[in-house]
Amino acid sequence: MIRLEQLKKVVASGSEDLTILHPLDLEVPEGQFLSIVGPSGSGKSTLLGLIAGLDAPTEGSVLIDGVNLVELGEDELARLRGERIGFVFQFFHLLPSLTALENVLVPLEIFGILNAEKKSRALLDEVGLSERTHHYPSQLSGGEQQRVAIARALANDPSILLADEPTGNLDSSNGKHIIDIILGVHERRGMTIVLATHNMELARMSDVMLELKDGRIHRPEIANATATDAAPDVPAEDAQTAAAGSSGQ
Amino acid sequence: MRFVLRMAGREMRASWSRLVFFFLCIAVGVASMVALRSVIQSVRTALMKESKSLTAADVLIYSNRAFTENAAFVIEEKLKDHDVSETSRAIEATTMARRDGEESEVSTLVELRAIEEGFPYYGKIELAGASYDHALLKNGGALVRPELLTRLDVEVGDSIWIGEQRFEIRGVVVREAGRSLRMFSMGPRVFVDYADIDDAALLDLGGRVWRQILVRMDEEGIQELVWDMKGSLANEFVRVRSYREAGDRLARRLNRGENYLSLAGFVILILGGVGVWSVVRVFIAQKLKSIAVLKCLGASTRQVLAIYFFQVIAMSAVGSLIGVVFAAGAVAAIPPGLGLDLQDVELSLTGSAIVQGVGIGLLVSTLFSLIPLLHVRLVRPLWLLRPEGQLEPQVSTGGLRGWLRKLDRLQVGAGFFLLVALVGLASWQADSLRVGAYVCGTFAVVSLCLHFAGIGLIKAVSPLAKNAYFPLRHAVLNVSRPGNQTRVILLAVGVGVCFVLTIRSIQENLLEEFAVELRDDAPDMFFIDIQRDQVEILEERAWDSGASSVKLVPVLRARVVRLDGAKAQLESYEQVREQGGLGREYTVTYRNHLDDNERIVAGRFWDESHSPDLEVSIESSLRDRYEMDVGDKLTFDIMGRSMEAKITSVRDVEWSDARNGGFMFVFRPGGLENVPNTYAGFIKAPNDALERAEFQRRVLAGIHNVSVVDLRDILDALVQVVEKISLAISVVGNVALLSGVLILLGSVAMTKYQRRYETAIFRTLGASRGRVAMMMFFEYATLGVVAGFIGAMGAQVLTFLLSTQVLEIPFRFAFLTNTVAVLIAAASVSVVGVIVTLDVLRHKPLSILRVG
To answer: Is B293 close to A95, i.e. CB distance below 8 A?
Structure first.
């Protein structure tokens, strides 16, 4: 379970301080699929970063299964991430010098599991990349890279998957493929998923949708909302895609 | 650990081709170290051989009295204790030799050396037309210098008398090992067998006899034996010295040469380190994303540090091995490349130089990698979400407190550790803690100055950011933009210029110092006790007999008996005597001009007019030691007369250039003409030994009161050694210069990786290649000038310290060298900057933008 208490983030912007997140309380029960929508700069990525312990809050606390991340050091945070959290980025962030298979192997090896090739291959198979195991990231398309990133995020069987705009850097066909994989993962593994996106089709698939604006929760916890109700600020194109997706369901 | 090794291996495997440049940079650094160490070791071996052949042994034990029973016992015991391989006895004496035959009255002073079989342990005795064998000396044989043959009009096979003993001349010595204990010889050398010398007869010669024991032993034990013996024989009038001891000018020069070589080796080590530092810095900068990803996936800082540490070690190891190959090529190329003939010096890559080079290469790489590697700790995985802010502090801070808070204590600690480790390495490499401390201290101070110069430069050029000229405006913006290369280039270039220029400046200073001794016109024969009425005839004969320079100088013996000075007042001769050296008898002269090697440092030297008062000019060391100065009065005892003279000037004398002799006291002409004096002749006689003997015979025909001191042997030995040292210094200095410049340019070239992205953006936005190149030129040229200037200043301070404190040579500020260095630094940095940018410009912008 994820619990955020009075979470606030302030960063320096030139000579002034800029509040990215205003004090925020949130609870994500185990197994819930939460999507966060909102315009660029609304604080979505910052919120995900704080949940993953990639960043430290200015005030408040982040509790993952009761463990307060604020009290952990960098290495303890890294360990917690490795054990319980998988992260998928908008720009994939694969290690360029490693093959697809090796990229998936890394999180396992960090924890001393050295003969995990079988598991890694199975994960790549799960995301439909069993034929591309020995390709380097530069030899893969954007969609394929993101699928490797998802396989890597699942390697340690984390209980939480955080995804920051996973389709934001992909065309609609590849984006669709990624949406299907994330939904499949949620369904099969019952993981807690927190996903930041502009993609309303994807957001609409979540159990709960949360809208952020200027670092504040604009429309809280709209469960199974429709695209037009939920996200008035999203671009028209996304809204249409969402609507199309909705009609297709 | 297996994960760490696997990751390190995978990363290196994939980016092998991109790492080639990294390997090359490290290879150049290590190659310089290995090549220089090899050259230095080879040259050192040659210089050591030279030093040993001057003494003919590893250790010399000598006394001008017969060894007492106690002394003989102590010597025997100590030699047993210290694992000595061999010893042999010898006697040196200045004595008279005369031709055999009843009618003969022709005799001459000779330098006798009685030796045992085995002499010399180092160097050799060369004979004209035959090879030396101790059997030639057995049973009354003698080997003589050719001058003796002319002087006594004898030839091989004839006999000569030394004291009451008769010796048969069995060979002519062309070259000898084991110079005289004195700087000069009073006559030609004669070698005889030690067994043939009647000890009792030598007693008549008094203090002019030196009894010697020559010792051969392992290098490691030498110093210990010398210290032990010196301690035990302190009260026995026995002196002990190793071949290394700076007892005379030659040894001092050898030491200076060696010190310089060690220094060059150490400096190149630091430069190599700076090269490695810049390589690792760029390497880590390129790996930021991977580091962040690993941390995001759960890797601990320690694991990530280990991954990159292993990569750096692997790169350094491979680079070091490539460096050894480069070094082998470089060393092989040195003699023909520089047109040098190193004679005895065999230049080759020594095994120990390879092992030490690779070892030191790894050690220096590791040390210099520490600071950039520690950067890994600061990389936060958040960078993957927000790259621009990854290292920014959360709350803005200002002023000194803010700056201090921003300082990474571990990196500062690592910097301090690096400095201490370098001083340690220096002590080992340069055999001198002082050299290490000076070099490392300068390195630290120059680095700090460059750091602040970077901050100052950013502020100073900021007004130009509004300039209308696009390349200039963006060059200024480049200097000050976030993530700029300003401090990196300043540091690499500044430190590089500082050390390269130091090596160069010291090389120039040393060579200039030595050049004085290599001049052909230096007098090599001194005539003493020439009477006034002999001056004209002697001068005429000398010119007629082939002298290339003749100078006769009036000399008197004088002793200071009273000093009436502002600071010191020594009323009586006893008080003066208590001052030590001041009470001794000095040889003084009078003249109305300064010699070429003299310079007035206080007061004024008199003109040619006559003065009724006696005036004296003193040498500057007297002023410093005895607190006398211009205006003080000195009372001299000159030939029994008490004469008061006023000090009117103080002179600096360049003693190494004492072609006309150096005088502590020079008087103004006028007051001393009536005092009886003699003349000393400083003459450059012909070089050939036989011609010299003939020269002496003709000049001194019928003149019996004049003594001759021949300096040719010592000058020859000096010139030979100085030539070798000069050559070594030139070779090492040039290799150091070349490698320093290569490392420096490599460091600048490394910054290209950080230029790729912005260059691609500029080109996408329509900037032409020429415009981008011009922009880079302005930026790099500015940085080159600032770094060159600060580096040059640092070099002057370091050169001054090392010249005056370590090498004991005068410091000369080389304005031209410095100016040229700054200009070359600016030009080469800007040219390299533009060239590496052009390399980036060759690629299509999209390929770079895609990679990001």
So the answer is: yes
Which residues of A are less than 8 Å from B287 in CB distance?
A: none
Among candidates B290, B296, B386 on the partner chain, residue whose Cβ is nearest the Cβ of A81 = B296
How many other C-beta atoms can be found within 10 angstroms of the C-beta atom of residue B323?
A: 29
Is residue A187 scored above 50 in pLDDT?
A: yes
The first and second tokens of residue B652, run together, are 């600096």
Query: In the predicted model, is pLDDT for residue B312 greater than 90?
Result: no
Q: How far is B792 from B446, CA to CA, in rounded Å?
A: 10
Domains of chain A as residue ranges with CATH: 2-85+159-248 (3.40.50.300)
d(C-alpha B508, C-alpha B726), whole Å: 10
| CA end-to-end distance (rounded Å), chain B | 31
**Mean pLDDT, rounded, for B561-569:** 69
User: Are B220 and B62 spatial neighbours (Cβ–Cβ below 8 Å)?
Assistant: no
User: Looking at the partner chain, which of A15, A89, A138 has a beta carbon nearest the beta carbon of B384?
Assistant: A89
Minimum distance, in Å, between the CA of residue A218 and any CA atom of chain B = 22
Nearest to A110 among B15, B297, B395 (CB): B297
- Residue B272: pLDDT above 80? no
**Any idea which residue has 């970063």 for tokens?**
A49
B49-95 per-position pLDDT tens digit: 767 777 788 888 988 778 888 888 888 888 888 888 889 999 888 88
Chain B residue numbers with beta carbons less than 8 Å from the beta carbon of A12 are 392-396
Total CB pairs under 8 A between chain A and B = 110
Using a CB-CB cut-off of 8 Å, the residues of chain B touching A96 are 14, 290
Residue among B50, B61, B42 nearest B217 (CA): B61
Residues A39-54 have pLDDT tens digits of 888 888 889 989 988 8
Q: Are A43 and A9 in contact (CB under 8 A)?
A: yes
- B417–chain A nearest CA distance, Å: 25
Which residues of chain A have a CB within 8 Å of the CB of B394? 10-12, 56, 58
Cβ-in-10-Å burial (0-12, 13-18, 19+) of B445 comes to middle
Q: Does B6 touch chain A (CB under 8 A)?
A: yes
State how far the alpha carbon of A75 is from the alpha carbons of A203, B183, B301, B484, B641, in Å: 33, 72, 6, 30, 92
Q: B602-652: per-residue pLDDT in tens?
A: 888 888 877 778 889 998 888 877 778 888 888 888 877 888 888 999 988
Contact B478, B779 (CB under 8 A): yes
Euclidean distance between CA atoms A115 and A136, whole angstroms: 21
The mean pLDDT value for B840-852 works out to: 63
| SS (HEC) of B795-832 | HHHHHHHHHHHHHCCCCCCCHHHHHHHHHHHHHHHHHH
Go through B32-61 and write b for each residue having 16 or more CB atoms within 10 A of its CB, e for each that does not.
bbbbbbbbbbbbbebbbebbbbbbbbbbbb
Strand A216-223 and strand B126-127: the pairing is unpaired
- What is the percent of chain B with per-residue pLDDT over 70, rounded to a whole number? 77
Closest by CA position to B506, among listed B255, B777, B263: B263
Considering CB atoms only, which of A49, A74, A152 is closest to B385?
Answer: A49
Option in A14, A75, A112 nearest B3 (CB): A112
Segments making up each domain of chain B, as ranges: 2-47+253-516+719-851, 53-252, 548-684
Residue of B nearest to A165 (CA): B385
Which chain B residues are closer than 8 Å to A16 by Cβ? Answer: 396
Residue B357 tokens, joined: 């080079």
DSSP states along B237-249:
T-EEEETT---SH
